[in-house]
Specification:
Number of domains: 1
Distance between the termini: 27 Å
CATH architecture: 2-Layer Sandwich
Strand order of the largest sheet: 1-2-3-5-4
Order of helices and strands: EHHEEHEE
Helix content: 25-40%
Strand content: 15-25%
CATH superfamily: Histidine kinase-like ATPase, C-terminal domain
Shape: globular
Length: about 140
């Protein structure tokens, strides 16, 4: 399932509706709905927040796979940004000693494991696979 998303927060409703439709059509386990919704929303919002000058739509692709779902978001006309360059959050530190930022990516990694990144022709693509078994963190 593919969607072309406008660069606005209201598109989150379409993202969730598309995920629901895919899950219903593919008999995917309901236990994956929350991690897929939250991880997809976080990555989408990050694309909006960190590329405010972006002009084109954001492409979303959801694909049922054996044992789970693959999600891909592509932001066109974007400077390279690899989420792997964001250092892990040290949640043991007191809030007053932590760096600002990175908690959203930390949460995504906890929910779905690895987030894969590709940049080509000014297009940042982030993808992940949510599986029935626990994420490999």
């Amino acid at each position: 399932m593919k969607l072309s998303l406008r660069r606005e927060l209201g598109e989150i409703e379409r993202i969730v509706a598309a995920r629901r439709a895919l899950f219903a059509a593919s008999n995917l386990p309901a236990s994956l709905a929350y991690p897929v919704d939250l991880a997809t929303e976080e990555l989408f919002v990050n694309m909006l927040r960190h590329n405010p000058q972006g002009r084109g739509p954001i492409a979303l692709e959801l694909e049922a796979m054996a044992g789970g779902v693959r999600v891909s978001l592509a932001d066109t006309d974007a400077e390279p940004f690899d989420p792997a360059s964001v250092p892990p959050v040290d949640t043991a530190l007191p809030l007053s000693e932590r760096q600002v930022g990175g908690l959203g990516l930390h949460l995504v990694r906890q929910l779905v494991g690895a987030v894969h990144y590709h940049h080509r022709d000014r297009c940042n693509t982030l993808s992940f696979m949510a599986r029935e078994e626990p994420a490999d963190v």
